[in-house]
């Protein structure tokens, strides 16, 4: 019984190791895929409550961000031309969706900051002692 448990534990470890290696090897493709899909979801955003719009709202309200890189990403969408920024872009709870840029979150998404940090590290842009 103990050997079976050790085999399963080893198998789980190997699966995690393979997943980490594959994630590292394909990190650029994964990042580009996330970015392209998020940009596509922004372009197709509407307030009717479909799953893409709900996902965009959830990401923006959870991460306190607006758009893919900043709030200017919304200016190319049909939703912005009709109604302005979505409510999930608001900094404050009592905010109403407006075209006023100072009332929306304009921080970058943490994923992209982490990507920049990892790229700086992998490009050896630090001093080795």
Automatic annotation (TrEMBL):
Alphabetized SUPFAM superfamilies for the sequence: Tetraspanin
UniProt keyword annotations, A-Z: Glycoprotein, Membrane, Transmembrane, Transmembrane helix
Membrane topology qualifier: Multi-pass membrane protein
Ranges that cross the membrane: 6-26
Statement: the UniProt record of this protein carries the keyword Cytoplasm: no
Pfam name, any one: Tetraspanin
InterPro entries: Tetraspanin/Peripherin (IPR018499), Tetraspanin_EC2_sf (IPR008952)
Main location: membrane
GO cellular component terms attached to this protein's record: plasma membrane
Cellular compartments annotated: Membrane
Family listed: Belongs to the tetraspanin (TM4SF) family.
Protein name stated in the entry: Tetraspanin-6
Lineage: Eukaryota, Metazoa, Chordata, Craniata, Vertebrata
């Amino acid at each position: 019984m103990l050997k079976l448990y050790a085999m399963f534990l080893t198998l789980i470890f190997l699966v995690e190791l393979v997943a980490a290696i594959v994630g590292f090897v394909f990190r650029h493709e994964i990042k580009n895929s996330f970015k392209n899909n998020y940009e596509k979801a922004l372009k197709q955003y509407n307030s009717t409550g479909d799953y893409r719009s709900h996902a965009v709202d959830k990401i923006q309200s959870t991460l306190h961000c607006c758009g893919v890189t900043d709030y200017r990403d919304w200016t190319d969408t049909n939703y912005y031309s009709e109604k302005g920024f979505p409510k999930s872009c608001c900094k404050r709870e009592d905010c109403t969706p407006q075209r006023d840029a100072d009332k929306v979150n304009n921080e970058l998404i943490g994923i992209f900051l982490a990507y920049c940090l990892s790229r700086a590290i992998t490009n050896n842009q630090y001093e080795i002692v």
